[in-house]
Amino acid sequence: MIGQTISHFRVVEKLGAGGMGVVYKAQDIRLERAVALKFLPENVATDAQALERFRREAHAASALNHPGICTIYDVGERDRPFIAMEFIDGEGLRNHIGGKPLPLDEILNLGIQIADALDAAHAQGIIHRDIKPANIFVTKRGQAKVLDFGLAKLLPKGIAFAGTDSSSSAQEPVSMVGYISGTPSYMSPEQIRGDDLDPRTDIFSFGLLLYEMTAGRQAFAGNTGGAIIEGILSRRPPPLSNLNPEVPARLEEIISRAVHKDREQRYQSAAEIREELKQLKLYV
Question: Does 130 participate in catalysis according to the annotation?
Answer without folding.
Answer: yes
